[in-house]
Amino acid sequence: MTPAFKQPVSKDPWHYARPALAAQHLQVFDIGLTSARGLFAKRRMGKSEFLEKDLMPAAEAAGYLTAYLNLWEARENPLPALVGVLSRALAPKGWQRLVQQLNSPLKKVKASGKVPGLAEGALEAELTDEPARAGPVLSELLRGFDNPKKRLLLVLDEAQVLADPKHTNLAHALRAGLDSRKQSIKVVFAGSSEPTLRRMFARSTEPFYNWAPLEPFELLGKDFVLAMVAKVNQLSTYPLAEEKALAAFEALQRTPEFFRRYLNRYLTHAELGADAALVDTQQHVFSDANFVERWESLTESDRAVLQLLADGVRDLHAEPARATIGRLLGHDKAVGYHVPAQALKRLQAADLVAKFDYGGYQFQDDAFCQWVRNLGYSA
Hints:
The chain has 379 residues and is α/β, with parallel strands linked by helices. Helices cover 51% and strands 9% of the residues. The strands form 2 sheets. A 5-stranded parallel sheet has the order 2-3-4-1-5, sandwiched between helices. A two-stranded antiparallel ribbon has the order 6-7.
């Protein structure tokens, strides 16, 4: 049975709390059969909000120290950022003493308790300038959790960044440090690229091979919509009908971020009605302003492949698909196999398309998919 605990109150009045789901994740760690979990969901589906506003506060209430890092924001040089979040977890009020213990004095800026964040940023900057020092500092930080009284929940969001070959050394070092501390350090690997995460944990050549079970993040649904409607109707003199909100949620591809935009539009223009709020939201979410620049940066063959993919074509290497790509490119015959193959490689590298283990492809961003679909094509 899922243990009960007092869910910390979020400062965000529009946050939809999921205490039972947070407790479920922590219970898996408390049982002790695993020290890591992998979660995947497309972007904008509420995954990061749950991790930061539900899971981490619940872990802190249960006695864990917590560290959260969105690796996508530090994808060029994640090691100093990781050192920073672990340092803040280990000694949030004792930076100067911690730095001295790590034998890593700050050269550029002295630690000062009067200037929050100053020492942290300086340490990260120094380690960025001298990356060879970051590995030993990471090892020292992880040893700080050898104390059985210290338990850490480490949340690595957009963890697929660690699968990049240029971060292989970091991945190996991190796994080595975590392997011997499974009782004291629990890890959540979350990401938006299911295929990359599966490769991280399923291929024997990867540093994190067989290290964490991977499962889909539990998406928000009807209960979330109805809870948001209740909040809206507490504020508005124009009640929002539940059936209208549920229809809008479906029309916005069950994307919580888009649905919140819809609610905001409704609250500020409620006299125009729910249908008008949905039309306005769709126009903004799927607007040219969001995607034209991205589209124009692509090659013609990349665009052709995306148009077929948005239209539901799955076998992009089959003769009919290659014939359509040929017509879109102005040819009178099918293009060679290399054309869609190279386009898909570029689109995956740009994080626009993801490949599944069974060979299918899909857009990473549902809004971009809808926008491309709306373009239409004649072939």
